[in-house]
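Worked Example 4.2. Consider the chain below.
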Amino acid sequence: MISSDVIRGYNDTMILYLLLSEPSYGYEISKRIRELTDEKYVIKETTLYSAFKRMESNGYIEAFLGSETYGKQRTYYKITETGKKYYKEKCKEWKITKEVIEKFIVKENDHEYNQKLS
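Applying the procedure from the previous section yields the following structure tokens:
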């Protein structure tokens, strides 16, 4: 399981990615994140709903009520044009972040550093 501290800055990116294809609701988004990460990352409900609130106030997503299911209306979320632009920016940012961090990760075939780690 991955530490939520490591991934915190990219929760919005993951949620927006899922909303690119179609609107969805909290439980389904949470479930898809678990599935796509092979259970390596489980987003907490409080984290998910604070992300929805933040992204809605920033104009990245819009909330709307879906049809009634079992007597209760679900709140769905859809990505906005602003959200799509933000998603693209976060993808570019991730590529740079990955390049920077990989400079400090010992590679399997780097015998000198692997010996120092032993």
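The beta strands are 24-25, 61-69, 72-79. The chain is about 60% helix and 15% strand. Compare this with Example 4.1 before moving on.
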